[in-house]
Design a protein that fits this description.
Bound molecules: 2-oxoglutaric acid
Mean pLDDT: 91
Distance between the termini: 34 Å
Helix content: 10-25%
Largest sheet: 6 strands, antiparallel
Strand content: 15-25%
Number of helices: 6
Order of helices and strands: HEHEHHEEEEEEEEHH
Radius of gyration: 18 Å
Amino acid sequence: MNSPDHLRQQLFSAGYCVAQGLLGKSLLQRLRRAVKPIIKSNRDSPPSHFGLITSCPYADDAFAELIAWPPALKLLREMGFEDNRWMSFYLIDKPPHSRPLWWHQDWLFWDDPTSAIARPIQAFLSYYLEDTNIANGCLRVIPATHRQRHPIHNVLLTHDEVPEDLPPDHPMFEDLPEAVDVPVQAGDIVLGDARLVHAARGNQTAAHRPLLLGWYLLDFHLLSPPLQEAYAHAYGGHTFTPPGWWAGTAGEAVKNLVVDPPSGAVAARRNRKPGIYLQR
Ligand SMILES: O=C(O)CCC(=O)C(=O)O
């Protein structure tokens, strides 16, 4: 595995990095079992993300372990991030023979001057539950687009603007030569900056491709007060209570990661469209 220093350097410069083998075999098996009924019950629901994307119901305590997974939190600390908070987890399943996901970025606050800083503020930790590659729908990234404008930014629609049936010839699907595929083994973590332009290959196989994607805030205490307040309104401790049925101390570990409640400060305004804080 690459050293935490190397991973930090890659996350800062390219906008993403891969930490290998962080999910132990036993939690991986428990998570595979936990997502199976969710995937099955959603099999006939309308497509979104050209597959299933759903907020985790957290009903299985494997999710509690995942949210506060000690090896992941340790890695973040070793990478230099000391005060990390959890926002949400999504199950993103690509059904057999499903379409690619379009290029997009996920940063919510492009009007905030800290949109331009090198340090990642909001990051995804993606846990692919099966070996994932070009054939079954791996992640694709355009390195360094978390801080640097790229022509693709000119054609990106925001999440609210993307129609469910975005045509396959839309430029948001363009096969760019500088795009990098990110194949992983089950149990690896992909860490990505929310500002990074990324997409995913289609699933050309007959098997599902499940992903558990968690959003985290890195070094919450260093965020500007307006950002802290915006996150507090959406995710602050007041909105999340660990379910009582989580076994043992699982809920306790998650409590340490909950975003502080609002303080009454002025909150940053949401704007998903990059502006002057994305370098040319
Ligand atoms: O499905 C994937 O592999 C990536 C999904 C993702 O990163 C996203 O939806 O933001």
